[in-house]
Write a structure and sequence with these properties.
It contains 7 helices and 9 strands, in the order ββααβββααβββααβα. The chain has 246 residues and is an alpha+beta fold. This is DUF3223 domain-containing protein.
Protein backbone atom coordinates (compact mmCIF):
# COMPACT_ATOMS: atom_id res chain seq x y z
CA UNK A 1 0.00 0.00 0.00
CA UNK A 2 1.28 3.46 -0.92
CA UNK A 3 2.46 5.53 2.04
CA UNK A 4 1.75 9.26 1.73
CA UNK A 5 4.38 11.70 2.99
CA UNK A 6 3.20 14.91 4.64
CA UNK A 7 5.54 17.66 5.86
CA UNK A 8 4.69 20.28 8.50
CA UNK A 9 4.81 23.09 5.91
CA UNK A 10 1.90 21.57 3.98
CA UNK A 11 3.91 19.82 1.25
CA UNK A 12 2.74 16.29 0.55
CA UNK A 13 3.28 13.38 -1.81
CA UNK A 14 1.11 10.33 -2.40
CA UNK A 15 4.07 7.94 -2.03
CA UNK A 16 7.49 7.76 -0.41
CA UNK A 17 8.99 7.25 -3.84
CA UNK A 18 7.56 10.54 -5.07
CA UNK A 19 8.91 12.39 -2.02
CA UNK A 20 12.34 10.79 -2.40
CA UNK A 21 12.39 11.71 -6.10
CA UNK A 22 11.55 15.32 -5.20
CA UNK A 23 14.52 15.69 -2.86
CA UNK A 24 16.87 13.70 -5.09
CA UNK A 25 16.02 16.04 -7.96
CA UNK A 26 16.50 19.03 -5.65
CA UNK A 27 19.96 17.80 -4.59
CA UNK A 28 20.90 17.31 -8.24
CA UNK A 29 20.07 20.92 -9.09
CA UNK A 30 22.83 22.26 -6.86
CA UNK A 31 26.61 22.12 -7.16
CA UNK A 32 28.92 21.13 -4.34
CA UNK A 33 29.13 23.91 -1.70
CA UNK A 34 26.30 25.84 -3.37
CA UNK A 35 23.79 27.43 -0.98
CA UNK A 36 20.11 26.57 -1.48
CA UNK A 37 18.75 29.99 -2.51
CA UNK A 38 15.39 28.86 -3.87
CA UNK A 39 12.84 29.68 -1.14
CA UNK A 40 10.55 26.76 -1.91
CA UNK A 41 13.50 24.36 -1.70
CA UNK A 42 14.68 26.01 1.51
CA UNK A 43 11.22 25.75 3.08
CA UNK A 44 10.88 22.08 2.07
CA UNK A 45 14.26 21.32 3.65
CA UNK A 46 13.33 23.13 6.86
CA UNK A 47 10.16 21.01 7.08
CA UNK A 48 12.09 17.84 6.21
CA UNK A 49 14.67 18.58 8.90
CA UNK A 50 11.88 19.01 11.44
CA UNK A 51 10.58 15.61 10.36
CA UNK A 52 14.10 14.20 10.79
CA UNK A 53 14.39 15.56 14.34
CA UNK A 54 11.06 13.96 15.09
CA UNK A 55 12.33 10.55 14.00
CA UNK A 56 15.82 10.57 15.53
CA UNK A 57 14.98 11.58 19.10
CA UNK A 58 17.93 9.81 20.74
CA UNK A 59 20.52 12.07 19.11
CA UNK A 60 21.23 15.82 19.27
CA UNK A 61 18.79 17.91 17.26
CA UNK A 62 19.84 18.63 13.68
CA UNK A 63 18.01 21.97 13.82
CA UNK A 64 19.79 22.99 17.00
CA UNK A 65 19.55 26.73 17.66
CA UNK A 66 17.93 27.25 14.24
CA UNK A 67 18.96 26.92 10.61
CA UNK A 68 20.34 29.86 8.65
CA UNK A 69 20.83 28.12 5.31
CA UNK A 70 21.23 24.82 3.52
CA UNK A 71 23.94 23.85 1.08
CA UNK A 72 25.15 20.81 -0.81
CA UNK A 73 28.39 19.18 0.35
CA UNK A 74 30.12 15.87 -0.32
CA UNK A 75 30.37 13.37 2.51
CA UNK A 76 33.80 11.72 2.32
CA UNK A 77 34.22 8.01 2.93
CA UNK A 78 37.10 5.56 2.41
CA UNK A 79 37.71 5.74 -1.33
CA UNK A 80 34.50 7.46 -2.35
CA UNK A 81 32.19 10.35 -1.60
CA UNK A 82 28.48 11.09 -1.86
CA UNK A 83 26.63 14.42 -2.11
CA UNK A 84 24.34 15.40 0.73
CA UNK A 85 22.39 18.30 2.11
CA UNK A 86 24.03 20.15 4.97
CA UNK A 87 22.52 22.71 7.32
CA UNK A 88 24.41 25.76 8.55
CA UNK A 89 22.94 26.86 11.88
CA UNK A 90 22.52 30.37 13.19
CA UNK A 91 25.39 29.82 15.64
CA UNK A 92 27.75 28.96 12.76
CA UNK A 93 27.83 25.20 13.35
CA UNK A 94 27.12 22.81 10.48
CA UNK A 95 25.62 19.34 10.18
CA UNK A 96 24.63 16.91 7.46
CA UNK A 97 21.43 14.89 7.34
CA UNK A 98 19.98 12.15 5.19
CA UNK A 99 16.91 13.20 3.23
CA UNK A 100 16.27 9.50 2.57
CA UNK A 101 16.04 8.67 6.28
CA UNK A 102 13.99 11.77 6.96
CA UNK A 103 11.45 10.86 4.27
CA UNK A 104 11.18 7.20 5.26
CA UNK A 105 10.75 7.86 8.98
CA UNK A 106 7.58 8.91 10.74
CA UNK A 107 7.07 12.63 11.35
CA UNK A 108 6.90 13.93 14.89
CA UNK A 109 3.49 13.76 16.47
CA UNK A 110 2.14 17.28 16.73
CA UNK A 111 4.51 18.94 14.24
CA UNK A 112 1.69 20.00 11.95
CA UNK A 113 -0.44 20.94 14.95
CA UNK A 114 2.30 23.26 16.18
CA UNK A 115 2.56 24.83 12.73
CA UNK A 116 -1.21 25.35 12.69
CA UNK A 117 -1.15 26.91 16.16
CA UNK A 118 1.51 29.37 15.02
CA UNK A 119 -0.57 30.24 11.97
CA UNK A 120 -3.65 30.74 14.14
CA UNK A 121 -1.65 33.12 16.35
CA UNK A 122 -1.04 35.55 13.49
CA UNK A 123 -3.94 34.95 11.09
CA UNK A 124 -6.03 37.91 12.25
CA UNK A 125 -3.00 40.22 12.12
CA UNK A 126 -2.13 39.06 8.61
CA UNK A 127 -5.68 39.65 7.37
CA UNK A 128 -5.66 43.13 8.89
CA UNK A 129 -2.20 43.92 7.48
CA UNK A 130 -3.28 42.93 3.99
CA UNK A 131 -6.45 45.03 4.22
CA UNK A 132 -4.56 48.05 5.59
CA UNK A 133 -1.94 47.76 2.85
CA UNK A 134 -4.59 48.00 0.15
CA UNK A 135 -6.37 50.85 1.94
CA UNK A 136 -3.11 52.77 2.24
CA UNK A 137 -1.46 52.13 -1.12
CA UNK A 138 -4.38 51.24 -3.39
CA UNK A 139 -5.05 53.38 -6.46
CA UNK A 140 -8.42 54.90 -7.34
CA UNK A 141 -9.80 51.41 -7.96
CA UNK A 142 -8.19 49.92 -4.84
CA UNK A 143 -5.40 48.05 -6.63
CA UNK A 144 -1.70 47.75 -5.71
CA UNK A 145 1.28 46.42 -7.70
CA UNK A 146 2.19 42.75 -7.55
CA UNK A 147 5.78 42.58 -6.25
CA UNK A 148 6.70 39.97 -8.87
CA UNK A 149 5.19 41.43 -12.03
CA UNK A 150 4.36 45.04 -11.22
CA UNK A 151 0.83 44.43 -12.48
CA UNK A 152 -1.93 46.14 -10.52
CA UNK A 153 -4.14 43.67 -8.67
CA UNK A 154 -7.13 43.84 -6.34
CA UNK A 155 -7.31 42.46 -2.83
CA UNK A 156 -9.37 39.46 -3.96
CA UNK A 157 -6.65 38.24 -6.34
CA UNK A 158 -3.71 38.98 -4.04
CA UNK A 159 -1.70 36.70 -1.78
CA UNK A 160 0.19 37.94 1.27
CA UNK A 161 3.51 36.18 0.82
CA UNK A 162 6.25 35.63 3.39
CA UNK A 163 9.11 36.92 1.29
CA UNK A 164 11.73 36.11 3.93
CA UNK A 165 12.00 34.09 6.05
CA UNK A 166 9.36 31.57 5.01
CA UNK A 167 6.64 30.91 7.56
CA UNK A 168 7.94 27.38 8.08
CA UNK A 169 11.39 28.76 8.88
CA UNK A 170 9.90 31.11 11.47
CA UNK A 171 8.01 28.25 13.11
CA UNK A 172 11.10 26.06 13.34
CA UNK A 173 13.22 28.92 14.71
CA UNK A 174 10.60 29.70 17.36
CA UNK A 175 10.49 26.06 18.45
CA UNK A 176 14.28 25.92 18.63
CA UNK A 177 14.42 29.07 20.75
CA UNK A 178 12.14 27.39 23.29
CA UNK A 179 14.02 24.10 23.28
CA UNK A 180 11.12 22.21 21.72
CA UNK A 181 12.99 20.77 18.72
CA UNK A 182 12.26 17.14 19.58
CA UNK A 183 8.92 17.40 21.31
CA UNK A 184 6.36 20.01 22.27
CA UNK A 185 5.55 19.72 25.99
CA UNK A 186 2.13 18.41 26.90
CA UNK A 187 -0.40 21.12 27.54
CA UNK A 188 1.10 23.60 25.05
CA UNK A 189 -1.29 22.74 22.21
CA UNK A 190 -5.05 22.50 22.42
CA UNK A 191 -6.28 18.85 22.38
CA UNK A 192 -8.61 17.67 19.60
CA UNK A 193 -12.21 18.68 20.23
CA UNK A 194 -15.54 18.84 18.41
CA UNK A 195 -15.98 21.92 16.23
CA UNK A 196 -12.29 22.83 16.62
CA UNK A 197 -11.24 24.28 13.29
CA UNK A 198 -7.53 24.36 14.06
CA UNK A 199 -5.01 23.68 16.79
CA UNK A 200 -4.15 26.65 19.01
CA UNK A 201 -1.82 27.39 21.90
CA UNK A 202 -3.43 26.76 25.28
CA UNK A 203 -1.43 29.54 26.95
CA UNK A 204 -2.16 32.95 25.37
CA UNK A 205 1.36 34.02 26.37
CA UNK A 206 2.88 31.50 23.94
CA UNK A 207 0.59 32.71 21.18
CA UNK A 208 1.57 36.32 21.87
CA UNK A 209 5.25 35.37 21.99
CA UNK A 210 5.09 33.77 18.54
CA UNK A 211 3.13 36.71 17.14
CA UNK A 212 5.71 39.16 18.48
CA UNK A 213 8.56 37.08 17.05
CA UNK A 214 6.79 36.72 13.70
CA UNK A 215 6.00 40.40 13.41
CA UNK A 216 9.57 41.42 14.16
CA UNK A 217 11.16 38.95 11.73
CA UNK A 218 8.76 38.50 8.81
CA UNK A 219 9.17 40.41 5.56
CA UNK A 220 5.80 40.38 3.79
CA UNK A 221 4.82 41.29 0.25
CA UNK A 222 1.80 41.26 -2.04
CA UNK A 223 1.86 38.94 -5.05
CA UNK A 224 -0.84 37.73 -7.39
CA UNK A 225 -2.28 34.56 -5.89
CA UNK A 226 -1.67 32.46 -9.01
CA UNK A 227 1.95 33.62 -9.11
CA UNK A 228 2.82 32.60 -5.57
CA UNK A 229 3.86 29.00 -6.14
CA UNK A 230 5.22 29.37 -9.65
CA UNK A 231 7.23 32.57 -9.31
CA UNK A 232 7.63 33.62 -5.69
CA UNK A 233 10.50 31.24 -4.90
CA UNK A 234 13.20 33.04 -6.89
CA UNK A 235 15.87 34.12 -4.44
CA UNK A 236 15.79 33.14 -0.79
CA UNK A 237 16.18 36.80 0.22
CA UNK A 238 14.19 38.76 -2.39
CA UNK A 239 14.07 42.54 -2.48
CA UNK A 240 10.66 43.99 -1.63
CA UNK A 241 9.77 47.42 -2.98
CA UNK A 242 6.69 47.96 -0.83
CA UNK A 243 6.72 45.71 2.27
CA UNK A 244 3.43 44.99 4.03
CA UNK A 245 3.50 46.37 7.57
CA UNK A 246 1.90 44.48 10.45
Amino acid sequence: MAKPINLPNGRSWKTQSAALAHFKDMLGRYDDNEVVEDRNDHDDLIALLERYDGVVTDQPSKIGAGVDEFFRKRNLFDGFSTPSFWARRTDGSETDFSYIWAVKGEPKSGAQEFYDACRASVNADLVAAKRNHFNTYGDATGRVPCELTGQLIGVGEAHLDHAYPTFGHLVVTFRAARGWQHEVPKGVLSPPADSQATTTFVDPAVSKAFAAFHHSAALLRIVRDKMNLSMAAGQRKPKVKQPVAI
